[in-house]
Amino acid sequence: MSDTPDRPVHPAGSAAAVPDPGGGAASAPSGDSAAPTRRAARRGPVSRAMLAGITALAVVAALAVWLDGRRAQQALRTEVAQRLAGVEASTQAAGRAQTQLATDLRDAQAKITLLEARLAESQAEQAALEALYRDLAPSRDEIALSEIEQVLVVASQQLQLAGNVPSALTALQLADSKLQRLERPQFLPLRRALSRDMDRLKAVPFVDVAGMSLKLDQALAAIDALPLAMDERLPPAVPEKAAPPANEPSWMRFLRDVWRDAKQLVRIEVSDRPAAPLVPMAQQYFLRENLKLRLLTARIALLAHDDASFQADVAAADAWVKRYFDTRAKPVQALQATVKQLAATPMPGEMPDLTRSLEAVRALRLAQDRAPGRASAPAAR
């Protein structure tokens, strides 16, 4: 809006009244020009009123817009202030929570540090206890190797002293089954050595040493009851089967009885053997004891797998039995059968040894003793 007073707009072609500078009214135009002047004078107040109304409306609208903007701005400020207050409260709460979290974090870190220290102490103690346990109590593998070594030593002694191949083979199979249950790769060389030794033992012919030794014991026990050849008793005469007739005269019966008694007094026999040697009563004891010594020597040779000595002793015992004892007696015949059966039994050759298996198990034990865990056990303690 302008402070300049409104001036009437004159239409084109009309003459406006010009005021007189002297204070008088200007002279009106003459003729038809007076009518437009009057119409313009009547329109002037109406235009100013309309302009004033429009101006007032514009001022009112502007004021309303300004009030509305102010009210919206005030509401926006209020909302912003509320939100800022909420954000500030949240920030303060977050700050307090952050402070509490930092405090808790420091406490947790302190506890973690303490737990780590205790865990390190516990691990050190556990390592020391494990090292001490390894020193005091051997592991499962060490126990298994120690047991296998003992089994192999016993089996080797059985082979060398008694030639007991079945027992040695059973011991090797037991050791192999124990290693199979353990399933350790480092035990493969030992299992290969055991397999080779088992194959060698299976190739050895079976000889029942225990049964042969038992038969020798039975023969030794029967020597004291064997009859000597010089004490041979002839079998009794066969009685007459024909019965005498019932009406036989008495003198015939008498002659028959005399003849029967006479035949018992004298007996003629054809012998196809040489005369039995006479052994005095004082020498009979030594004869039996010498025969026992021969059989005992044969038993020792059997256990030692000395085939030459065994065959020599058995042959000597058989010769003594044939020469000095009654070969018609059943006990003597049973003893001769036993001696012949023993002499016909083939003895095994050289017994295989278990040196490879023993060396393999001892090498494994030595490797375990030199392991780093075993060497560092005293330092951990």
Overall description:
By secondary structure, this protein is mainly α. Among the domains are: 43-134; 140-204 and 352-380, no CATH class. Helix content is 71%, strand content 0%. It is built from 12 helices and no strands. Helix 2 (140-162) packs antiparallel against helix 3, helix 2 runs antiparallel to helix 10 (355-369) and helix 8 runs antiparallel to helix 9 (330-344). The longest helix has 103 residues, at 34-136.
What can be said about this structure in brief?
This protein has helices spanning 34-136, 140-162, 165-182, 188-203, 209-222, 250-265, 281-303, 307-324, 330-344, 355-369, 372-375, 377-380. With 381 residues, it is mainly alpha-helical.
Topology (SSEs and partners):
Layout: H1 34-136, H2 140-162, H3 165-182, H4 188-203, H5 209-222, H6 250-265, H7 281-303, H8 307-324, H9 330-344, H10 355-369, H11 372-375, H12 377-380
